[in-house]
Amino acid sequence: MLEIDAVFFDDRIEHWQISSLMTTKPILALITNGNLIYELDSTVVPLTKGDVLLILPGTVRTGYHESSAPHQKYAAIFHLILPPEHPFFHFTKGAGYRLFRPKGFEYLRQRFSALYRMWLSQSAFRDMTSVGILMEIVGMLMQELEQHDIPTHKAALSKTIEHYIVRHFKEEIRLQDLAQLVERTPNYVSTIFKETSGQTPIEFMHHIRITTARHLLLQTNMTITEVSDALGYCDPPYFNRMFKKIAGHAPSELIKQRKEQ
């Protein structure tokens, strides 16, 4: 369904600029810091932290800094292998680009970071895992377009739960606690959160934990047991199962990769 050509991270590149180019494959970018401007088919599109831009094939693009302060952004170039009737084309039909201001910026930033690290890795599972992460990101954005008519009170409830999980994901989080937070039943909370985000609150928590675990295993000297304990998994075998389910490979693969660097 999807194949990745390249994944980039612009880390405060001075004098960043893109000359006029015809886009031949979809480009998905998340701005994580600073400001920049794209000109897309002569339309000026200012971008700032938290914006996600999907540039579609056939669009002429130019890019440059808005000011002297360099920006940071992740970008993925990919191509889709989908039938013409797929919903993706329905939501992007007639547009040279789509600009998103997604609700879950911190989670998206973590997923783009995981995508970039995986793309640079030497893992035998690199392509498989990278595609899985990018498909999740694209799916989340398309779901936002599909669900733009979600009632405000449901969106607000979901955002409250999301913020709580992002702040407390290392602690024990029970559905009953989230229900008490928003004064609703556990079943209602789980249903509404999945309706607005595509996953249950507990699934969302595990994704954030495993994304953080990947960073710790690659960038620190912590052991698998230490990472497991730090992220609220008291049972290392359970942590291993969750890690493999979400990341597509065992945490020991990252330990091996870290030692080879």
From TrEMBL:
Keywords: DNA-binding, Transcription, Transcription regulation
UniProt xrefs under SMART domains: HTH_ARAC
Annotated ranges, domain HTH araC/xylS-type: 159-257
Statement: the UniProt record of this protein carries the keyword DNA-binding: yes
InterPro entries recorded: Homeodomain-like_sf (IPR009057), HTH-like (IPR037923), HTH_AraC (IPR018060), HTH_AraC-typ_CS (IPR018062)
Pfam families reported for this sequence: HTH_18 (PF12833)
Name of the protein in its database record: Helix-turn-helix domain-containing protein
Organism of origin: Paenibacillus mendelii
